Amino acid sequence: MKKYDVAIIDFEIMNNETNSPCEIAINLVKGLKIIDTYSTYINPKNNYYDNEIALIHKIPKKVIEAAPKFEDVYDQIKHYIENSSYVIAHNAHFDVSVLLSTIEHNKFPMIKFIYIDSIAIFRKYLNLKSFSMSSLCKTFNISTDNLHSAQYDVKALTAILLIVSETNNYKSMLELIQNMDHSYIKYSEFTNIQYALPSFRKYKRPTLSVINQYKILHPNNIHLLDKNIVFTGEFKSGKSNLMIKARENGAIIRSDVSKKTDILIEGIQEERFKGTDGLVSKQRKARKLICEGYNIKLLSENELLNLLESEKIYD
Question: At the top level of CATH, which class does the domain 208-310 belong to?
């Protein structure tokens, strides 16, 4: 008999590759009680710090750089998983892929375990339209303020699973799982590992309405304060990251070019979106308005970064 009935796990990652875990949290459950917990930040071998994803997990780069390496924490993670009858995660394919791809990347011997996606459990026992962590937390009156922290996600997920178990008069979370259809039970050795983030929907860019609610931290930047700014293309510093920095300097971020646009920030454009003139629609529209007499500035990523630096002069 295993020491733990269930290991409830969650990972956060540094970039769009799943072998870049920067945080893990595990709750170990026996019966209907949490009998052990484990969490740590991780400095992975694949440690490129993606600014877009950092907007989600909010872990500072310096915290990750000071964290233990994966090889330093793997034995502890392995111990908890191998001593659990089942592993549960929300969108389990993501977290299992993070674990397996990182083990593979570090050339460690692969571990075997049985797992189930908590979404499958909730679909069986709850009559809800959405099974996202945000929706589940709202349903069970759990704060969503700290979601996308591995520690908080595991804490919230465990609380909801315990409520569902108790509501259905199960004496253990193990009993809850054993009453699931066997088709929902998965085996790690047969998992089709996903190596890149685009296969998942766990992370998404914040909307412009969210970004425009960010507090203005540098109100004296005369170059950006109250300016209507539009971004087009992709950026080395991360589009969302630049949008937020511009907003913190007083800019208003807009989705499309119009007569009210003050600045268009031009990034790297995909060839498939370019017309015969080599421009994408936002670039073409801005240039047309400039020819009509509207004062729209066209800036590159580096030029925007220089304006963001200029706030230090005026603060």
Answer: alpha beta
